[in-house]
Every structure is written in structure tokens, then in C-alpha cells.
């Protein structure tokens, strides 16, 4: 049965990465799960167990992406990018630093997919307006893609991988932040240093700020734009209070998404009658242009289209792919990996962090970080490790799963989509070229971040 489980996993992963026409990642994964159930690699009793592991992470991720898509439609991220470009004051190297830091901030708050898939097209368009040469543009877009994952360590909500691990090991939002915010800052700093060194000759010395549009022109829906700041602040507070109130993160993120959807669609309409001063709580008849109509110069956000574009396939993918992975666990694969992790655990926190992190990173780069993180989490749970050793294994799993995918194009689904977005904009990055850049950029950042984790854990303890 072990061979059958491995073959099912390999076939499913191939379909997920290949994505044949008309067959999304969710249906591919569900097909693999159906075969695993039919061959008894997994049993129907495993289904609720797997769903219990992934449901909160999956639904929270979808809600966060919906929030980011609505804010993107309102012009939130383009506004931020234009402000950052002006802060660069015509200095090309400073612009590069600020774009990387903006990408890290977006990744931390809106998850890595948001940073890669939303910010990259905005930056690419801005570089065209600034008349940057192709070599310089490539440096900036690769930096956006790289920092999307390298900057997704600080918060539980920064990456789907983070939520899965936090849920599996029952790590609260605050505890996770205490450990990973400092480690995440080290990761961003190391990433910035490596990116600057690698692209030092490609970054232009200067640029003409007069070619940039005014940031205010990027805002397409002022009501949603302003409300977005409030919703984000409430969400951050909500994430911290969710644990003592025993609320899942998906509930907090889901409420935030629903509120922003209601505002963007101007529902209930009575709250959004049009007036010269913007939306006010007045009867419908008070608005000259009809309740809910956008103010002059504003665009109405198509909330239904955004909902259709939300990553619903990730729900099917999570349950399907993780059932397939659970089949590997049933056949003893995770026990073998647990033995490797235990051997690292016998040699102290530093060796544990480096060993587990590097192994997970390599696995994530070869077989995608989503299945890798569950395999690794199951293996860490099977080690029986306690104290700092256990903490090092858990957080090294997060780091390896977040950073390792940048080594190869197949390491994460976000990277494959990112490459597709660039291709549509006329920027071609071959898989060989990506690997040569990815491995050089990733390995030093991975090593520095894991060392920082080991050092910080000895400070904060368990």
C-alpha cells in the first residue's frame, strides 16, 4: 500500500501543478482523494479528521484574499505604491528598498498571495511609466515575488501555511506573533540585503518622479478605501482577541470580509445615500442620485465578480490534497520523517531549527509547500518532542514551508500564478532562469532566518 499511496500522491501533485485545461487545482486534488479512498489508502473516517485540520486555515485564507481583492479594486495598493515611489525622491536604490518593504508589509497583512499577485502588476505598470529598462524591471518584479514569501512569516494570517501549523499545534495569534515577528523582521532584512547585492548592477541610479501619477488618482472608490483602513485595524484587534474568546480566525476574517463587501456594494442602501459629503445615515429619498450610487468620479466595485474570482478552489484543494497526504501518513511515511526530525532534536535548538527548516524547505521546493506542511506537521507531532526542541521544530516547519518554495517554480501555487501574470504582461521568466535566481536568493535568507529563530527561542523560552 505504500507504493500505491506514493503513486497517488505523485499523480495528484502532477495534475495540481500542470493544471490541465478546465481542471482546477481543487478538482485535481479531489480526484486524487477519491482514488485514495477507493484504494483504502485512506478511510472515510479520516475525512472529518483532515477537515478538522484544514477548515479554519482554508476559510480564513479565502476571507483575507476577498478583503485584499476589494481593497485592490478600490485602489488601495496602487495608492500605496505611488506614495512609496514618491518617497524614493528619484533615487533608484531607495525605490527598490521601499518597494521591497511595501511588499513585506502587504505580505504580512494580506498574505503572500496578495503581495505577489496584486503588487507585482502594479509595480510592473509603474516601471513602464518610469521608462525603466527591461533588466531593471525584471529586478523589481523578481524582488516583489521573492519578498511575498520571505515577508509572510510575522503573523498567523500572513500565509496559509502559517494558519495550518498554528491550528494543528494550537498556537494562539499572540504567541505566534511574539516568536515570529522578530524572526520575520530578520527574514525581511536578510532578503533585502541579498536582493540588493544580487541586483546591484540592474537597479537604475535615478528616475523621474514627474512621470508618476498622483496617488489620489489611484483611488477608485473613496468610501471603500477609507473604510478599508478601519476594517484592517478592527481585524488586527480581532485576531488578538479571538483566542481568549475561543473564536476561529476564519470567523474574524470572514466578518471583516462581509463588512467590506457590504460597504463596497453599498448595502444596506439606506446608509449610502449619495450626497456632496459622501455616505451618511439618511433616508433613501435624501440622495439626489439614488441610494448607494457612487459619488462623482468614483467607480462601483463589482463585488459579485470579486466573489467569483475568490480562491474557492483552495477549499477543494485543501481537503483533497490533505486526504492524499494523510494516506502517506497512514502508510508510515511521516513516521520516517519524524525519525529524521528526532535525530536533529538530540543536538540542541540550533541544529534542530536548521535541520528541520532545511529539510522542509527542500521538500517544499520539490513537491509544493501545501502538502509539505501537513507532512511535516504530522511528523513533528509524531516525534514526541517537548519544550524548546518542539518549538524549534514547529516554527522551523513554518519557515521552511514559507521560504523553501522560492527555490523552484513549483514550490508554491502562488509562484506559478505569479509567473503566469508576468507572462501575460510580456515578462517571461523561464523555469531554469527562475531556479538559478531562486536558489541563490533563498538559501542564505533561509539559513539566517533559521539561526535567528534558534536564538530568539532561547530568549523567549516556551
Automatic annotation (TrEMBL):
The membrane topology of this protein is:
Multi-pass membrane protein
TM region positions: 60-82, 94-110, 139-161, 173-203, 224-241, 247-264, 310-328, 348-366, 373-397, 403-422, 434-457
Quote the subcellular location field of this record. Answer: Cell membrane
The protein's UniProt keywords, in alphabetical order, are:
Arsenical resistance, Cell membrane, Membrane, Transmembrane, Transmembrane helix
Q: Which InterPro entries match?
A: Arsenical_pump_ArsB
User: Where is it mainly found?
Assistant: membrane
Per the record's keyword annotation, is Membrane included, yes or no? yes
- Give the record's family classification: Belongs to the ArsB family.
- Protein name (Swiss-Prot/TrEMBL): Arsenical pump membrane protein
Chain's gene name: arsB_1
Amino acid at each position: 500500500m505504500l507504493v500505491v499511496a506514493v503513486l497517488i500522491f505523485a499523480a495528484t501533485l502532477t495534475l495540481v501543478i500542470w493544471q490541465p485545461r478546465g481542471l482546477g487545482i481543487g478538482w485535481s486534488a479531489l480526484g486524487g482523494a477519491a482514488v485514495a479512498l477507493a484504494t483504502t489508502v485512506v478511510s472515510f473516517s479520516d475525512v472529518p479528521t483532515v477537515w478538522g485540520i484544514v477548515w479554519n486555515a482554508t476559510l480564513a485564507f479565502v476571507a483575507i484574499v476577498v478583503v485584499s481583492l476589494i481593497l485592490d479594486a478600490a485602489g488601495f495598493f496602487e495608492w500605496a505604491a505611488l506614495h512609496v515611489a514618491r518617497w524614493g525622491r528619484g533615487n533608484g536604490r531607495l525605490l527598490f528598498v521601499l518597494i521591497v518593504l511595501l511588499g513585506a508589509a502587504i505580505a504580512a497583512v494580506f498574505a503572500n498571495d496578495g503581495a505577489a499577485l496584486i503588487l507585482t502588476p502594479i509595480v510592473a505598470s509603474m516601471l513602464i511609466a518610469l521608462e525603466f529598462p527591461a533588466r531593471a524591471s525584471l529586478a523589481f518584479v523578481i524582488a516583489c515575488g521573492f519578498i511575498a514569501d520571505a515577508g509572510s512569516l510575522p503573523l498567523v494570517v500572513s500565509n496559509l501555511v502559517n494558519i495550518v501549523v498554528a491550528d494543528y499545534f494550537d498556537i494562539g495569534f499572540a504567541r505566534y506573533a511574539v516568536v515570529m515577528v522578530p524572526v520575520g523582521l530578520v527574514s525581511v532584512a536578510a532578503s533585502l540585503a541579498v536582493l540588493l547585492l544580487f541586483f546591484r548592477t540592474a537597479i537604475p541610479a535615478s528616475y523621474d518622479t514627474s512621470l508618476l501619477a498622483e496617488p489620489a488618482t489611484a483611488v477608485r472608490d473613496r468610501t471603500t478605501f477609507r473604510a478599508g483602513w478601519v476594517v484592517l485595524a478592527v481585524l488586527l484587534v480581532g485576531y488578538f482577541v479571538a483566542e481568549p474568546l475561543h473564536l476561529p480566525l476564519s470567523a474574524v476574517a470572514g466578518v471583516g470580509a462581509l463588512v467590506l463587501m457590504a460597504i463596497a456594494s453599498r448595502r444596506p442602501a439606506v446608509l449610502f445615500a449619495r450626497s456632496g459629503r459622501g455616505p451618511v445615515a439618511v433616508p433613501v429619498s435624501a440622495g439626489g442620485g439614488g441610494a448607494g450610487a457612487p459619488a462623482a468620479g468614483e467607480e462601483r466595485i463589482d463585488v459579485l465578480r470579486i466573489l467569483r474570482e475568490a480562491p474557492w478552489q483552495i477549499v477543494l484543494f485543501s481537503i483533497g490534497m490533505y486526504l492524499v497526504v494523510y494516506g502517506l501518513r497512514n502508510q508510515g511515511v511521516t513516521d520516517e520523517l519524524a525519525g529524521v526530525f528526532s535525530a536533529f532534536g538530540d543536538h540542541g535548538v540550533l541544529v534542530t531549527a536548521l535541520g528541520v527548516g532545511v529539510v522542509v524547505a527542500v521538500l517544499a521546493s520539490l513537491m509544493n509547500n501545501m502538502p509539505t506542511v501537513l507532512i511535516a506537521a504530522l511528523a513533528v507531532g509524531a516525534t514526541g518532542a517537548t519544550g524548546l526542541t518542539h518549538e524549534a521544530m514547529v516554527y522551523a516547519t513554518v519557515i521552511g514551508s514559507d521560504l523553501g518554495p522560492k527555490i523552484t517554480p513549483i514550490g508554491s501555487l502562488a509562484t506559478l500564478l505569479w509567473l503566469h501574470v508576468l507572462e501575460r504582461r510580456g515578462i517571461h521568466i523561464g523555469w531554469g532562469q527562475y531556479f538559478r535566481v531562486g536558489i541563490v536568493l533563498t538559501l542564505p535568507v533561509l539559513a539566517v532566518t533559521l539561526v535567528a529563530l534558534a536564538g530568539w527561542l532561547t530568549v523567549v523560552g516556551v
